[in-house]
């Protein structure tokens, strides 16, 4: 097939970061702790976040581990350095930039009635800077950062009260930034709610055994499914509010799309059916948020497990009538599923990997220990599947490659692997567009090195721009441009051609 690599006029080229992994300033200007402030990495600390149940008060309290380095507390200091950082991004020609608003900067506890003006002011300045540099802001409302008070006091999203707190927050930020921000996303990678309930779902276990070493084991399926429903109601209410307030804007969901790129290990029909089942764990969220329905396979699961969530009158209609305008997703790697591991493929535990079965057709992996199978065709598979199923615009919210890189003073970091990754994935995006997928834009994850979310490291560097900070917390935070910066710049300048 002759490749044209044409991208539509007005295609959005940019980069994506998140407040919790870049801003630092974790207790500045009124901000209070949020979920990932008490974790090193959301996978590595998924079982042992820095909170402890106090049987006296019957509440969780913050209890940071003095032996751990919580890099995100200072992160890459984007909170203070965003002006120079955004200039570097604009220097690549990016016409958009995605970040998140830190919920706990606006509502430090989460349940206040009035917002924190210092937090609001910060994002005014941030969005103004983006706009002045020609970059359309793309804003995630919450990216792994539920205010910790809401989790300790209310158990987070398994409690219905969260819907009201979230809506109050949305109402404030939509009114404040509606004239500046046209593209919004509700919950980052909400489909991680079962695998990472604390960080990605903002859920705290309610039945607590303080002696259980494995924190994650305290969650019940019932509370996780209630949290799912509450978040889905909040999503629909947020979409409705958004459409009322900002008719010209677009609001999307954000899904960890790598899980959708799951192939059957063989043509054995049992492998194919196991894969169908595994992929439903990801389709589930867009079936609700993009198609507006609770799918039959979810209802059957509830029935089989006897965990019917509390669904109130009018909520299913609300979900049906308020679907997202576009599907945003991240894509990093693909997976293989066979019938033997199928059932446990994405069960809600943190240790069971999603990459258990090796794909013999994929020979390239990201560096150890992360070992992501590098599969550009998987990105096209996700784009085409989403298009076929929902017929909605798509937006690649994250794609990128983490490498362990060392800076040698006076020398530019050479990163041909990153350039190749970028080019190969973009070729597949172009092919999907040729096939008719309506792709609004492409965002590189972590265009500036930032704190990894999964493992909480600086060592896993995604950036086109190096940031001098290290796993042990050392580093002077200086920025320097890597070779790949110029390649992305060239691609953007030619609109992908
Ligand atoms: C996505 C998240 O899961 O992947 C980001 O939205 C995250 O927050 C990114 O950083 C890459 O994962 P990691 O673990 O390499 O940081």
UniProtKB/TrEMBL annotation:
Database matches in InterPro entries: GH, GH_1_N_CS, Glyco_hydro_1, Glyco_hydro_1_AS
Keyword Membrane in record: no
Presence of the UniProt keyword Hydrolase in the record: yes
Catalytic-site annotation from UniProt: 398 (nucleophile)
PROSITE patterns: GLYCOSYL_HYDROL_F1_1 (PS00572), GLYCOSYL_HYDROL_F1_2 (PS00653)
Signal peptide limits: none
Family matches, as SUPFAM superfamilies: (Trans)glycosidases (SSF51445)
Pfam family, one: Glyco_hydro_1
GO molecular function, one term: beta-glucosidase activity
GO BP: carbohydrate catabolic process
Keyword line: Glycosidase, Hydrolase
Assigned GO CC terms: cytosol
UniProt similarity note: Belongs to the glycosyl hydrolase 1 family.
Protein name (database record): Beta-glucosidase
Organism of derivation: Faecalibacterium gallinarum
């Amino acid at each position: 097939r002759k490749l044209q690599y044409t991208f539509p006029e007005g295609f959005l080229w940019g980069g994506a970061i998140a407040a919790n992994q870049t801003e630092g300033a974790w207790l500045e200007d009124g901000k209070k702790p949020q979920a990932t402030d008490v974790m090193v990495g959301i996978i590595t600390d998924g079982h042992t976040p820095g909170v402890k149940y106090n049987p006296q008060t019957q509440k969780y309290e913050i209890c940071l581990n003095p032996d751990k380095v919580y890099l995100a507390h200072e992160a890459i200091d984007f909170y203070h350095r965003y002006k120079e950082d955004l200039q570097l991004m604009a220097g690549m020609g990016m016409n958009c930039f995605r970040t998140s608003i830190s919920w706990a900067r606006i509502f430090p506890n989460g349940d206040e009635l009035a917002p924190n003006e210092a937090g609001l002011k910060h994002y005014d300045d941030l969005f103004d800077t983006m706009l002045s540099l020609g970059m359309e802001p793309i804003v995630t409302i919450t990216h792994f950062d539920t205010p910790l008070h809401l989790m300790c006091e209310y158990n987070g999203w398994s409690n219905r009260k969260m819907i009201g707190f979230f809506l109050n927050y949305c109402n404030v930020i939509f009114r404040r930034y509606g004239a500046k921000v046209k593209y919004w996303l509700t919950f980052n990678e909400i489909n991680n709610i079962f695998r990472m309930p604390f960080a990605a779902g903002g859920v705290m276990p309610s039945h607590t055994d303080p002696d259980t070493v494995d924190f994650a084991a305290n969650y019940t399926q019932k509370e996780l499914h209630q949290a799912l429903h509450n978040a889905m109601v909040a999503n629909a209410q947020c979409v409705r509010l958004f459409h009322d307030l900002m008719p010209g804007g677009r609001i999307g969901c954000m899904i960890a799309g790598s899980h959708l790129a799951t192939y059957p290990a063989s043509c054995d029909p049992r492998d194919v059916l196991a894969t169908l089942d595994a992929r439903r764990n990801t389709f589930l969220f867009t079936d609700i948020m993009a198609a507006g329905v609770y799918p039959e396979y979810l209802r059957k699961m509830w029935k089989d497990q006897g965990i019917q969530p509390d669904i109130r009158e009018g909520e299913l209609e609300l979900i049906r009538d308020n679907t997202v305008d576009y599907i945003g997703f991240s894509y990093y790697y693909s997976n293989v599923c066979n019938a033997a591991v199928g059932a446990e493929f994405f069960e809600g535990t943190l240790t069971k990997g999603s990459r258990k079965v090796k794909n013999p057709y994929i020979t390239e992996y990201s560096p150890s220990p992360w070992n992501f199978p590098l599969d550009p065709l998987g990105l096209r598979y996700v784009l085409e599947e989403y298009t076929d199923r929902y017929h909605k615009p798509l937006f690649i919210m994250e794609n990128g490659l983490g490498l362990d890189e060392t800076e040698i003073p006076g020398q530019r970091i050479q990163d041909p692997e990153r350039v190749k990754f970028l080019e190969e994935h973009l070729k597949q995006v172009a092919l999907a567009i040729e096939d008719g997928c309506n792709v609004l834009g492409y965002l590189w994850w972590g265009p500036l090195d930032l704190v990894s979310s999964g493992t909480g490291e600086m060592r896993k560097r995604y950036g086109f721009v190096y940031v001098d900070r290290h796993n042990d917390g050392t580093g002077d935070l200086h920025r320097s441009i890597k070779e790949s910066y110029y390649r992305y710049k060239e691609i953007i300048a030619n609109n992908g051609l």
